[in-house]
Structure formats: structure tokens, C-alpha cells
Amino acid sequence: MAYAKVLTVLFGCLVGAAISQNCRMPLYPSGVSIDPLRIAGVWYEYMFYAPGTSDYNCINIYTPLNATTNSVTGVTIAFNWTITFSIKPPGSSYQCIGMCIVANVTTDGTESVAAWLPQSIGGTGTRTNLNYSILYTDYNLIEIAYRCANPVTTSLYCDSPLFWINLRSKPSALDKSTKDYVASTVNNVLTRYCFTTANMTYTNWDDTVPFCAPTPPTDCAALANASIRKPPST
After folding, report:
1. Which of 94, 174, 207, 216 pairs as cysteine with 86 (C-beta 3.0–4.6 A)?
2. Integer Cα distance of 215 and 132 in angstroms
């Protein structure tokens, strides 16, 4: 999730792939029925679909904040979602980047988030609202997440989808059988949308790069107390 990818993640830059009319990606897919609390902890980014981007050693950390119950959405868990990764601009050393996100994760697999990205790496320095869907997770190994980069609310479909495949295990330590299982699972989930692992980019994992643990942005606490936007029903 390097500099360019940060912009892609937050603002949908650099994404221009059109989806086949035969298996288009829904703008707001239903996701899967999940236990939000079980996604807590560390997830390592393994591969992604976000054209024109790259990163090193990307880690997602979900820390539970509180829980609420709604008769429609069920249990909602609020998380501090920290993303850390390294980038290496040409001719420069590795730079450690941190993103502060607060996510409301509901039992229908929806992640409604408020994200903060400092101006020093291309962000606006202000809160940005985004909506993700968890398309699959087994909690112990794989999470497949989706977001539409350029949502058009008058359409039921997304022509600029983004996908992330995150794992509980560090990618550089995976054996062949685990890699094969992950690939098979990803293909089973995404084939209906005309995507497979052949469309994905593998995240760079370099064990010689120091662990990236940036200081959280100063307004993370304010984000944690902010109301989070829900996606429209479809």
C-alpha cells in the first residue's frame, strides 16, 4: 500500500478497469455473515487488486473499541484499524507509513470506516468516509475485502473495484500447500465477479526491512468518537 496505493485506497486514483457486463461487481455486495469480534488482531496483506500500486510489508491491526446492538444490523463492533507499511521511493531508503482508521464492522460483513491520512504522504489531513465489504473470512487464515474506488450512487454496480486478500500468517512464511489453498479460496469467491488470482498483485514482503510501527496520528482519539457513515441499502 505504497504512496500511490494510499491514494487509491482513499480516493480511488489510478483505477480504470471496466467489468464485464456478464458478471459485474455490485456496488454494495451483501458480504458474508460474520462475528465481527473474531476479525480482531493482526492480518498480513498477501495480494491485492489496485492497479498501479505496490507496497512492502503491509500489516492490518484491528483493535476492538466497543460494541452496540441494532435490531436491523445486529451486533456492531467499533475498531481502531491501523494499517502500517513501508514504501521505497527511487533512490531513497524505506519509509514507514501509518494510516489511522476507525471501522464499524457489522454482522453482515459491512465495514463503514472513517480514515485519516496526513498531508505529508498525499492525504488531505481530514477525515474521509469509506465503505468496505468482507466477501469471505474463515477468521483463522483468510480475509477477502472489497471496496469500490469510484462509487456512482445511481448505479447498482462498480466499474472500479478494489480487492485485498489478507492472511493471519506472514506471507513470507507460507508453504506451497497453504498458498495453493489460499489461491483456490480466492478464485472460488471472486470468479463470480470475473476476477481471479491472475488479476492480483502480490504484496512485497522483505524480512530485511525493519518492522514498521509509526506513531499514530494525533487525532485518532477524535476519530474513535466520531459517528461512522453507513452505506445505503440496495
Report:
1. 94
2. 25
Residue 138 has a pLDDT of 95
The amino acid sitting at 20 is: S
**Which secondary structure element, helix H or strand E, spans residue 158, and what is its range?**
strand 157-158
pTM beyond 0.70: yes
The whole-number pLDDT of residue 12 equals 35
126 burial level (CB within 10 Å; 0-12, 13-18, 19+): exposed
Measure the CA–CA gap between 155 and 229, rounded to whole angstroms.
19
Q: What domains lie within the chain, and their CATH numbers?
A: 3-224 (2.40.128.20)
Query: How far is the C-alpha of 136 from the C-alpha of 33, rounded, in Å?
Result: 9
The torsion of the CA quartet 117, 122, 124, 125, rounded to 10 degrees, works out to: 40
* C-alpha cell read off for 140: 483463522
Evaluate whether 167 touches 43 at the Cβ level (below 8 Å): yes
* CA pair distance 40, 67, nearest whole angstrom: 13
pLDDT (0 to 100) of residue 17: 39
Closest CA to 119 of 229, 2, 217, 228: 217
The residues near 33 (Cβ < 8 Å, ≥ 6 apart) are: 107, 108, 109
